[in-house]
Amino acid sequence: MTNTRIPVLPTAILLFALGFGGRVALHEYHNFETVMVSVFLAAMLLPAAISLLVTLSIMIFSDLYLGYFGASKILFFTYTGFVLVSFITSKFKDKIGGKVSAGTMYKFTSSGIIFALVYDTWTNFGVFWINYEHTIDNLFLVYALGIPFMLYHLLSSVMTFSLIGFPVYCALRNQKSSLDIEPQNQELETKN
Fold first, then answer.
1. Mind listing the pLDDT tens digit for each residue in 90-123?
2. How far is CA 29 from the centre of its chain?
3. Residue 189 has pLDDT above 80, yes or no
4. Does the structural domain 8-178 have CATH classification 1.20.1300?
């Protein structure tokens, strides 16, 4: 089921363009990117299969364009990290989405923080798994070395989820979604 004001294909193309374009334009600024917010929006607005296609397309085509595809062992962890964001968002989208309100904006910003932490925890584990001897000391070392990148990624996520994600969601979402209709139905039931 789609929750968009415009058809699925144009929505998917728009979200792909946001993720791909942002990643290419901002590739010099590591951990400041639009991929995660695009993946999040795809999972919020599109059917699960299309959302997954958008997620993988953003990563594959931007990696091909930037010359990263096949050049790094960490690709498995970066791709599955974004797939994880898509999957979690799909499971909780009814709780995250809603009317245009400060509460929904707060949920978007909070989601950006949570997903940056989930993604960075997963990909840092990948760095540990691929590049370090598997000891608990090295695991802690990798996570400690990752803190500056994680902080920058958290800042990026707060900005992109608040300043891009929420407005794009509000512009693209179907205004007569079940989240808006439910309170109206409750009001009608209480009047009868």
1. 999 988 888 888 988 999 999 999 999 999 999 9
2. 18
3. no
4. no
| CA pair distance 168, 1, nearest whole angstrom | 19
Dihedral sign from CA coordinates of 168, 5, 24, 111:
positive
Residues 6+ apart with CB under 8 A from 3: 44, 45, 46, 93, 97, 173, 174, 177
**Nearest by Cα to 84 from 124, 64, 106, 55:** 55
On the question of pLDDT at 49 being above 60, the answer is yes
Query: Residue 77 has which token pair?
Result: 């962890």
Residue 161 to residue 138: CA distance in whole angstroms: 32
The tokens describing 40, both together, are 């999040």
Angle (CA) 32-36-42 rounded to 5° is 145
Residue 37 in tokens: 């917010």
Domain residue ranges of the chain, discontinuous segments joined by +: 8-178
For the chain, how far is it from start to end, CA to CA, in angstroms?
31
CB 68 within 8 A of CB 52: no
Write down the pLDDT at residue 75: 92
CA 99 to chain centre: 20
